[in-house]
Amino acid sequence: MARIALDARPLEKTYRTGVENVGAQFARLILQVPNRHAWHFYFIDPPKQKLPPSIRWRFYRGPAWLRLVVPLWLLADRVELVHFYLGYVPPLLRFLRTRTVVTVCDIMWLDDLSLIDPPSRKFIVKGVLPSLKFRTDYFIATSEATRKDLVTKLGIEPERISVVLPYVEERMKPYPNAPGAAKQLYGLDGPFLLFVGTAKPNKNIGRLLDAFAQLRARYPNAQLVVVGFVLPFWDETKRILKGEPGVRWLQYVPDEHLPILYSACTAFVSPALNEGFGLPLLEAMACGAPVLAGNTGAQPEVVGDAGILVNPYRKEAIAEAMEVVWDDEALRARLRQHSFERARLFTSQRTLEQLLSAYERALSYANSRQQTKSVSPREGG
Question: Residue 247, SS3?
């Protein structure tokens, strides 16, 4: 039994990004095996939910939570392994015996930093990149595509990476009379396409809106519903904020409303340029939505042959796929069935087994390193 700590902040967040949703999933799974290891959960605020008695937790709201307070906790708790859901590792951990595990959803910003919102770019370059290169002992990749990127683009040894796939949560299932509920809650009347996620360039928002405009030219009643944060730093995302014909931005909706929208939509459309996993794709399939996605990154791993995969760089291909799925009811019925079958593969039990195995491999790797060389501060900023 090892002492393992988790950055458990995502558990208590009301509004989560995709990365935070994955972090919350992993933490919830650990709650199912409270006696497997000596777990330590670190929060900013006291947890609202009651944790198992065997799980120890700390909280602190104030400055330097991650850079200073967490390293002090790790030292006081004699933690052997700490898991960060973000790609940042505090520099002070170079001087501790605690080994580090980081979840990496994607590193697409290595190819194009403009995919990152301007306020976060300095943190990525000065904080995340050196953390991944110099201060991370072991990596959890959320897809095979991300694992390959870590090896080929960052030069990480394959033996330092485990793939842990997110899972379908129980609440993600078909909602009875979903169109009626969507109309009552959000005034959505008639068929609509759905996009869920943080609107930013890697989500291919510009081509998505262009393709939808082509669909609407032929079907004037077509609607595109956008759910999630819209970052206002790029011309393509500003189009959502300014408003376009047939496009409805619902902003952030409660988690319990997502199955309603997934179940009610004519199709879920997210032809991203790249994805480290694409949790909304999986959620939509679990609710029986026909899915249109890009054929790049991890999207084929999630969708498989259960949806329509297109070249995300060709807006004509996106528009053609939209038109086909909008117009062909029999196709939609087949895709719905395929979505159900595909989503069933992504179980919480499989994810838990992969996660625990990753921790075991991380501990084993750390022990093997300590046996081959003396302990010394790790390099890098």
Answer: strand
pLDDT in tens, 73-88: 999 999 999 999 989 9
Q: Is the same domain home to 26 and 75?
A: yes
pTM of the model: 0.92
Find, among 290, 248, 299, 250, the residue nearest to 272 by Cα: 299
User: Cα angle vertex 132, ends 130, 135, to 5°?
Assistant: 75
Does residue 45 contact residue 132 with C-beta atoms inside 8 Å?
Answer: no
Domain that holds residue 259: 178-343
**13 and 149 housed in the same domain:** yes
| Residue with token string 């949703």 | 21
Q: How far apart are CA 275 and CA 308, in angstroms?
A: 16
Task: Indicate whether 377 belongs to any domain.
Answer: no
Tokens read off for 92: 């002070």
Q: Are residues 161 and 228 in the same domain?
A: no
Tokens of 86: 């973000």
Q: What is the pLDDT of residues 358-372, one digit of tens each?
A: 999 999 987 776 655
Beta bridge partners of 43: 59
In angstroms, rounded to a whole number, what is the distance separating the alpha carbons of residues 145 and 277? 8
Distances, alpha carbon 175 to alpha carbons 71, 131, 139, 227, 292, in Å: 44, 42, 36, 18, 20
The CATH number of whichever domain residue 188 belongs to comes to: 3.40.50.2000
